[in-house]
Amino acid sequence: MTATVTETVTEQPVSTRRTTEGRRATIVGFVLLGLTAVVLWVFALGAASDATATFNLSLPNDRFQGLTWAFNARALSLVVAVVLAALGAQRLRRSQLGWTNTVLGIGLLLFVVSFLGWAAAGSSFSLVGMLRSTVISAVVITLGALTGLMCERAGVVNIGIEGQLLTSAFVATVLSSAFGTVAGVTGAMLAGALLGAVLAWLAIKFQVDQIIAGVVINIFALGLTSFLASRVLSEAQDLNAPARVPSFRLPLLADIPVLGPMFFDHTFFVYGMLLLAFGLHFAFFRTRWGLRARAVGEHPKAADTLGIDVYRVRYRNVILGGLIAGFGGAFLALAQIARFEEDMTGGIGFIGLAALIFGRWMPLGCLAAGLVFGFSGALAQKVAILGTGIPSEFMLMLPYVATVIVVAGVVGHARAPAADGQPYIKG
Amino acid sequence: MTTTPTKPEPLPPPPAPSTLDTVTGAGTSLLRSLAMPALAFVTALIIGAFIIALSNVDLLPQLFSDPGSTLAAMGREVWTAYRALARGAVGSVYAISETLFATTPLILASLGVAIGFRAGLFNIGAQGQMLVGGMCTAWVGIYANLPGPLHVIVALLAGVVGGMVWGGIPGLLKARTGAHEVITTIMFNFIALYLVQWLLSIPLFQEAGRNNPVSEPLRPSAHLPSLFGSSYRVTIGILIAVAAVFAVRWLLFQSSLGFEFRVLGLNPEAGRYAGMSVGGLMTLALALAGGLAGIAGANQIMGLAPFKATTSLAGSVGFDAITVALLGRSHPVGVLWAALLFGALKAGGREMQGAAQIPLDLVVVLQALIVVFVAAPALVRAIYRMKGVAERPTQLTKGWGA
Q: Which of A26, A326, A337, B133 is the most buried (most CB within 10 A)?
């Protein structure tokens, strides 16, 4: 009797999952065929038959100069169209369902290549330049995602990342203008941690709904930084003039073609982001600390029974997450425009949250997702410069649209930590 | 908004306490339920005073060399600021008109957020819904050639439709794919912003001879009539907003659709087992929320000279609406009072900015603080050493998953 019950219970989700996967394969198949049509009609026929597109693969101060990739834009688009059509047809047969995401990823990549070929037809385009700004755009998104990861793996939803970024950007600007970069970055990290502590305090001690607490932190941060910007920074303008953090070229590594300028010729923020993503991946999945944090996020009661102090782990993780957000805020203020502007985050903290979901609550996943979102941002910037006739507003929408598509599960469902967002009440 | 009553309605005559009612720990007596917001307000003002005092860069350096007169000067500045705040909010007939004028869109947008809360959905997208609704209104207001009252009604309805579409899409996405509305509605705010920016740059909308994103003015027949004559800015929009309060109260607590929304908010599983279409209800709740925000957006064009659409037509109303709905505990009448309070703060804040040079953004800080204290009653009790029953705030969020 019990056996049959268990059987039906376990069987049902599997079959539903299979049909959902099948349905997704069909949807992806049609999406790929739709892309094929766009590639054929717009990119292949829209480019002159003899137009050559040139992708530059080196930047002016690289060691190896003059690397380029020149090709016939129409021919490339025709090849892409054939491949896309084949991939789409293959998805529609609903076989090898596990590969749907990979196929979709490859298809989108080919589509973008074809698009760039069309946009750059008859001229040249700095591919490496775009890849380099992809990494730069990915910094805040990845750091935001890692902040969310620290909190959510321990069971606290942090919607306040945006506010942490904004506040720490403000603090970084003021302290860096007054006392130098080190003070700016340290202060920013402490400011992020302080807001993290407030969030943890509201969520754990007072059991305020975590999303409400996070939203209120965002509103508070926006109000306070705008208030101080117009009351203090407009009076004392030397407080809004931090030194821009210089790039540091890593010897040898920066000389590698393409990868060098992409990853190894940046400010220390970029290296910090890369180290953090790899380090946290190790910490969460290979150390006792990580196991405990994950236990608190998945099953706090079990963790408590084993003698882990649930509240302590949650406080610590949310505050550590705040340090990461503060680092991201410092990057925003000190490495990009070297100035504080009201509401300068523009929703990037929320894109970070989407990257967390896209990255399936894995540190390296967050990095990969951050790079994907960063790519969409960099694409928007560079294509706006190329002048394709597409209104720039639509290109600027791209990261936000990509975020919606990602959370709407075109990439399939990921599972959040089981106790994510649930307050834990001892006893 | 009417639905055929398909199922028995075990409706409790008084509004059932829901998710956010417990947040404030509202007791049985009226006095107790007012005490907490009042204390939250006072505490926020006190913290605001410290923020004003400590952000005065001219006085701050002398604080340690000459504490007495510096503190007195800081106190004077706070007093001047708060007096201007009060004067701008309720100090004259004009001030009251300004308060009502600022309250109008707040009521409408917050009602939308409140409907979302009741249905267990956190709608942060009022901003984008106002923008899209406003653009639909602008289209009708500029191009339709209709007689006065009819033009107003059609333009308002266009706003409703635009807002409903913009709110309904995240609802549909949540229903179909589980995409969390907190992220999608925020993303839709940004998408709406760029969409509107584009629309205001094409000849369909952009005012002739302009380079910046501003629309043609609406035809005079689509202007909202003013309530007390042209020297006061308050229009019949405030009447529409108050009517909406009662309509939403009826919807939430008297109609079977509202009952289903509240079941969805309290226990979606129960709703599912009772045969409700959970996905359909989610979509409808967010669409209605968007529709209300859409009227707020329409009001910002039809009721405000020079009657043109801009990218900043929503101001900060869409975000203020969240704090208003939280403070009003997602009850339509609570929203009305909360919107009046925040409308007064906004009207007063403008006076404070003009007369005392204190940036209007302080009002945003005050709003956030008020909501924190209302959401964490134990915090306020700890500050004032009050005794009280330890109640547990209920969860609104349900994680990120499906």
A: B133
Q: Which CATH architecture group holds A128-408?
A: Orthogonal Bundle (1.10)
- Tell me the per-residue pLDDT of B58-114, one tens digit each, with 9 for 90 and over: 888 888 888 889 999 999 999 999 999 999 999 999 999 999 999 999 999 999 999
Does the structure show a pLDDT above 90 at B37?
Answer: no
What's the rounded mean pLDDT across residues A213-231?
94
Taking the CB of residue B8, how many other CB atoms lie within 10 A of it?
7
Residues of B in contact with A381 (CB under 8 A): none
Residue B202: its pLDDT value, please? 92
Partner B contacted by A408 (CB < 8 A): yes
Instruction: Quote the mean pLDDT of chain B.
Output: 87
pLDDT at A425 (0 to 100): 84
pLDDT single digits (tens) B223-267: 999 988 888 999 999 999 999 999 999 999 999 999 999 999 988
Window A:98-157, CB contacts with B under 8 Å: 152, 157
Q: Name the token pair of A59.
A: 């930047």
- To test the contact with chain B by mutation, choose from A343, A395, A397 the residue with the greatest count of B C-beta atoms within 10 A, namely A397
Separation in Å, CA of A167 to nearest CA in chain B: 13
> Burial code of A205-242, b = ≥16 C-beta within 10 A, e = fewer?
ebbbbbbbbbbbbbbbbbbbbbbbbbbbbeeeeebbeb
Can you tell me the mean pLDDT for B365-380? 89
Mean model confidence pLDDT for chain A: 88
pLDDT for the residue numbered A71: 87
> Closest Cα to residue A380, out of B194, B131, B129, B312?
B194
Lookup result for tokens 């959905």: B121
The amino acid at residue A165 is: L
H runs (alpha helix) in A202-287: 210-228, 259-263, 268-286
Tell whether B153 lies on the interface with A, counting CB pairs under 8 A: no
Tell me what the mean pLDDT of segment B176-197 comes to.
90
Separation between Cα atoms, residue B283 and residue B171, nearest integer Å: 4
Q: What is the DSSP letter of A7?
A: H
Q: Nearest to residue A343, comparing CAs of B351, B316, B343?
A: B316
Q: Give me the residues paired with residue B215 across strands.
A: B206
Q: What would you report as the CA-atom Rg of chain B, rounded to the nearest whole angstrom?
A: 22
**B128 token code pair:** 């984008």
Q: How far apart are CA A313 and CA A301, in angstroms?
A: 13
In this predicted model, what pLDDT tens digit does every residue of A70-125 receive, in sequence order? Answer: 888 889 999 999 999 999 998 888 777 778 888 888 998 999 989 988 888 888 88
Residue B356: count of CB within 10 angstroms of its CB: 18
Sorted by sequence, the CB contacts under 8 Å of residue B128 that are 6+ apart come out as B166, B185, B188, B189, B190, B191, B192, B193, B318
Measure the CA–CA gap between A352 and B187, rounded to whole angstroms.
12
Residue bearing the bigger pLDDT, A104 or B165: B165
pLDDT of the residue at B19: 42
Strands A124-126, A265-266: pairing kind:
unpaired
Domains belonging to chain B, first-starting first, are 31-91+359-386 (no CATH), 97-347 (1.10.3470)
DSSP letter string, B210-246: --SSBBPPPPGGGSPPBSS-TTS--BTHHHHHHHHHH
| Domain residue ranges of chain A, discontinuous segments joined by + | 13-122, 128-408
C-alpha distances in angstroms, B394 versus A311, A407, B112, B332? 19, 26, 21, 19
> What pTM was computed for the model?
0.88
| Pairwise CA distance, residues B151 & B241, whole Å | 18
Q: Measuring CA to CA, which residue among B243, B218, B238 is closest to residue B226? A: B238
* Tokens (6 digits) for B341: 């309070």
* Chain centroid to CA A237: 33
Query: Which A residues in the span 232-291 are in contact with B, Cβ-Cβ below 8 Å?
Result: 232, 235-236
